[in-house]
Design brief:
By secondary structure, this protein is α+β, with helices and mostly antiparallel strands. 32% of the residues lie in helices and 15% in strands. It has a two-stranded antiparallel ribbon. The protein is flat and about 45 Å long.
Length: 66
């Protein structure tokens, strides 16, 4: 559905074929944070860097308001 493309930064897994010393890892991200909610509308494709960054931002917001 997302054509093997990070929906945040646009990076694709095609890059690894062009530059073999750098591997793109794509993850499935649960938009609502509920890993048990695997309906397609709750899922999106992110590269590892964006996935980690989004979860870091979520943690920072939670800690700020805790």
């Amino acid at each position: 559905r997302d054509e093997n493309t990070c929906q945040n930064c646009g990076l694709t897994d095609i890059y690894k074929a062009e530059n073999s010393n750098w591997i793109v890892r794509l993850d499935v991200h649960h938009i609502d944070g509920n890993k048990h909610n695997s309906f397609l509308e709750n899922l999106t494709t992110l590269c590892r860097k964006c996935h980690i960054s989004i979860h870091r931002e979520i943690r920072e917001v939670i800690e700020e308001y805790a």
